[in-house]
Structures are given as structure tokens and as C-alpha cells.
Amino acid sequence: MTLKQAIVDDDALDVMLACRPVYSKNQDLAAFQLLLQGSGDGVTLSDIESSHPVILGTYSQVYQDGRTRTIPTFLRVTPEVLLARSLPHLPKKQYILDLDHGLAEPQVLLDQARRWAGQGYRLALDGFGPTDKMDPALLDLVHIIKLDVRRFDDDTLRATVERLRPHGADLLADHLDDRRRFRVCLELGFSYYQGDFLSTAVPVKGRKIAGNQLLLLRLLAELHNPEATPSSLEAIAIQDAHLTWRILRVVNSAALGLHREVSSLSQAIALLGMDEMRRWANLLLVHGSQNKPAHLVRNMLVRGRMCEVMAELSGEEVPVNHFIVGLLSQLDVITDIAMPELMDQVPLSQEVKRALVAREGKLGDLLNEVEHYENGRFDRLTWLNDTSFYEVAYRHSVAWARQIQQALGSL
């Protein structure tokens, strides 16, 4: 069965669904914020009920610290859900009910919050601004208070934190998009952090790609040579015993489904094929970066695979190029080198470089499309006529990324 057929045959949900990471103060993955869009006038109880097995079975499963574990998810409460007398059977350890304080009249919100807290659900309060007056009874009920840090300057944020501290809730800094504000929030005692602050490049002028990645770059250059052979690739790889060992581990990995041991490097490269070898060389390039959150690599894996899947679904000729563009789209974050400077050091085609630097061409267009999906901008999706394939492609990519992380973790 082809990848396209497997995607088409998978069960589609009636909702668009993406997951935004929520980090701990140590920059570990602590939870996901579910980004949901229903097919009608918002997410309904039936949408939640139908998507719950997929959320629990795929999206909330992450590979972290050498093992697969389940992390909680924030589920944004809609007006229909708020007014419901009962919820679908949702594991209370798995879901955090995310309430916007402007969702309903204060007394209605308080009464439902009391009901859910009494049933054992964890509650988060969202939409809290610098000048908003909140019912102390509601603040005492919720477990997490989310503050949109874009709405606060540093002094106002500090005063607000002091005002909220007596209520005992953990604080989450939302829409946190730069490292300086992260440090401010860290000093103020926030427990959770959400935003692009970890995935935004902070280039260091004059920095070069690390020495242990230079051989991989030479390997990539040879992989883009039309005259390349398994022997010519082997001649480069054997200069580093550790790289040779890693390639052999890749080929012998259960993720590739081989049933015999491979001991020759040239045989391993021949078995992989040039496209797969190019894919794994790129994977090894981004894997194991020092002082970077492990979840950043996961994001890059998901993005790369979804670009490739979308390319295959739409009949693009070389889907692996879309994979490379998606995977390397945050290489500047991993290396702390500005993308234009980075492209001067990386042996990629001009088409790939244009996509990475300027989001131009078909490769750049599809990268933009996948980024829209990741960020929940579902109304801006235009690549596929059948929108149900987006969620299935994303789901497949999340599961694939977890499998690859496990394989990379053993290298």
C-alpha cells in the first residue's frame, strides 16, 4: 500500500485539529493546547466525543526523556460545552478545561466552574487582562491562570502576578514570543509558557556550523551530485566511525522494517536508496543539537513529514524535497545562524534555498500551508480540495515523528 493510499484510507475527523506546545520552566514539553475548528459554528460536544480517541491515542503521546508518555491537553470550552449539563466521558487527568472569562455571564461561568471542579476536572482561566476585575471565588477555583503577555508591560505584569499569587493558581505566560520576556516571566514564577519564544532564531554573528556536522554537510553535497554512488558516499562517511555506526543503526532500525542485519556501509546506503539516504542525512544533521529543547526537533520532524505527505497527496513530483524544506525550516533556530548565512554553508538546490529563505516557489508555498495548519489558521488553507485530508496527514506526521524520535534516540 502506498503512503497516499494509507492516508486516504485512514478515518478522517469532522474537525481540524492541531496541537501547540506548552512548556515548563525547564523548557520541557508539559502539555498541548488543542487548536480545534468544527465543521459548523464551532466545536460541538459531538466533535469532542468523536475526536477524543485520536487525541488520546496519537496527539497526546510524546517521546521524551527516552520513553513514550501521555501529557495533558488544554481543551478550549465553547458556549455549547459551557452550557451542557454533562461532558462526554473525558479522562480528568488528560484534559484541562480552558475557560475564557468573557465566555458567559460571571455567575454562569462561576456555577459551571464549580460543577466541573467538583467533578475533578482541572480548570484554566483565559482572557485575563491588566484592567479586568475578576471574581475572587472564580480565581480560587481554577488551577491555572493564563496571561496574554502581549497585553502587559513588565511593570503591569509584575503587579498582576502579585495580585494573583494569593489565589494559589499556577500561571501560564501565553503568546510569549521572545526570550527576554521568557526570562522576565521565569523570574516572576510562572509555571508554564506558550508561544514562539523557543522556535524563533537568535542568530549569533559569525557562527559556523559545528564541526561534528561538517562531515554530514559533505555527505549531503555528494547526495546532491547526480554521479553519486554508494561507494562515493561510503568514502565520505567512513572518515567518521561514529557516523558510519549511526548509518548502520538507521538501516538496521526496526523503523525501516528490514529482516536481516546489514554490516557493510555501501550495502546499507544501497538498501536505503538515494532519497532515503538524503532524508536520513538531514535527520542526523538536526538531531542531537546541544542546548536546544528536544521538542524543537519533534516540531521539525512533524513539519517535514507533513510537507512530504501533502506533496504526495497533491501529486508533486519529488515529495522528498518538500520533506527537506519542512525539516530544515527551523535549522536557523537549531544552529543560531541566520537562514541566509546558513544557506551559504549548506549544499542544497537553489529551489530549496529560495523556499527556506524567502518562502518562494511551490516548495515555499507548501511550507506556508503547513505552518498555517500548525498554528490553527485553518481558514487560510488552500492546497487540498478535500480539507478532511489535512487532519489525517497531520495525525500521520505526529505518529511518524514519534517513531523517528525513538529510532534517533538509539543512535
TrEMBL record:
Residues 209-394 form the HDOD domain. Pfam families: HDOD (PF08668). It comes from the Bacteria. SUPFAM superfamilies: EAL domain-like, HD-domain/PDEase-like. This is Signal transduction protein. It comes from Alcanivorax xiamenensis.
